[in-house]
Design a protein that fits this description.
The chain is α/β, with parallel strands linked by helices. It has six helices and nine strands. A seven-stranded mixed beta sheet has the order 3-2-1-4-5-9-6, with helices on both faces. It has a two-stranded antiparallel sheet with strand order 7-8. Strand 1, helix 2 and strand 2 form a beta-alpha-beta unit. 41% of the residues are buried.
Length: 182
């Protein structure tokens, strides 16, 4: 893949620090894991997971996202991230084994969950900002008997206002957890 040298990250990210921390904790990654970042976007999840696992498979259907993820991995001197410019559903049909997966996009979510259930992933985290996406995720995880929980994270960050401090809320994120350990 040709590394894109643009300075503008792809749309849709990066995952906020607080959401990233909860998501990584819930994935419960191990050093021998093969981990898929499905809908990798800016590659933030891939880069943070890389030191914790054996191999990261970063997938996005957008070439600019794949280029950005690869560029950031090289800049961070991370060598265990493989980037795939593909649709999540198509990519998953070529995979024989995954231990864990993070899903950041909602396109074809039903089929993605079906494929991850078939692969018997140990842990799975799906981040969603829309109620409809959260509902689909929960319904399909329950259908496969791999639903664990939903966390609704509402983060607020402080900023100065006059001589005081005020909090400005970020958009809430649903962190949907599942996996074959249920």
């Amino acid at each position: 893949m040709n590394i894109d040298t643009s300075t503008k990250p792809p749309s849709g990210g990066p995952t906020k620090d607080e959401i990233l921390a909860i998501s990584l904790f819930k994935l419960n990654l191990s050093p021998c894991d093969i981990f898929a970042d499905l809908g990798c976007g800016t590659g933030r999840i891939s880069r943070e997971a890389a030191p914790l696992v054996k191999q990261v498979l970063a997938v996005d259907r957008r070439a600019e996202a794949c280029n950005w993820t690869e560029k950031e991995a090289v800049a961070s001197r991370i060598s265990n991230i493989s980037v795939f410019n593909d649709d999540n559903r198509t990519f998953l049909s070529t995979v024989d084994h995954l231990d864990c997966a993070f899903v950041g996009g909602s396109q074809g979510l039903e089929e993605v969950i079906d494929a991850l259930a078939k692969l018997k992933v140990r842990s799975l985290v799906i981040n969603a900002v829309m109620l409809e996406t959260a509902n689909i995720a929960v319904s399909y995880l329950k259908k496969h008997g791999i639903f664990r929980e939903v966390i609704m994270a509402q983060i607020s960050r402080s900023y100065s206002i006059g001589s005081g401090i005020m909090f400005k809320p970020l958009d809430p994120v649903f962190i949907i957890c599942g996996g074959s350990e249920c």
